Amino acid sequence: MIQNHHLAKSISDAGWYQLMTLTKSKAGYAGKVVEFVNARNTSQNCSGCHNPVPKALSVRVHSCPFCGLELDRDHNAAINILGRSNSTVGITGIYARQGLSSREPMQRDAPLLARSSSLTPPYHCGVLESAGSWMPLGQRHILQACMMRYQYFGSQKKLI
């Protein structure tokens, strides 16, 4: 059950699996990699010392009593999500069909933040074009951030 009754309908209506599939597909066409991470407790854990700092949803500032870090709650969550993605991005040498039974050693590339500054990010900000009422509001905002565009062809919608 969704706790926040103001967002419950918007979140429940969103087709999250479809959104993830479309995002991964569109990024693949652009030569980008999309990685989905578990966002659980990212705003509750301190990004500085990684200790849990419980707080209500109404509290918008993260203040850690352990290390003294103080920043916006969403900024803290974004740093934690980036840390979770950097822990797996850059691992090469594993193939899904072989699994971990392969005798080849796993190679680890440099972490994403340590790479060249000329590395283009796997996302771009943009504007959603021709989005009608067929798409739930939550998906529309995420697609705006991913720069996905839709067009209508007759009665069908098509990802371009």
How would you characterize this protein structure?
With 160 residues, the chain is an alpha+beta fold. It folds into 2 domains: 73 residues, no CATH class; 85 residues, no CATH class. It is built from 4 helices and 6 strands, in the order ααββαββαββ. It has a two-stranded antiparallel sheet. A hairpin with a 2-residue loop joins strand 5 and strand 6. The longest helix has 14 residues.
Helix content: 25-40%
Portion of residues in beta strands equals 5-15%
DSSP E strands, number: 6
Succession of helices and strands: HHEEHEEHEE
Largest sheet: 2 strands, antiparallel
Q: How confident is the prediction overall: mean pLDDT?
A: 67
Count of separate DSSP helical elements: 4
Q: What's the number of domains?
A: 2
What's the gyration radius in Å?
Answer: 19 Å
Can you tell me the overall shape? flat
Which residue ranges are poorly predicted, with pLDDT under 50 across at least 5 consecutive positions?
92-102, 108-138, 150-158
Termini separation comes to 35 Å
Write the layout of secondary structure elements.
Blueprint: H1 8-13, H2 16-29, E1 61-63, E2 70-72, H3 73-86, E3 91-92, E4 107-108, H4 137-146, E5 150-153, E6 156-159
Antiparallel strand pairs: 1-2, 3-4, 5-6
Summed up:
The protein has 160 residues and is an alpha+beta fold.
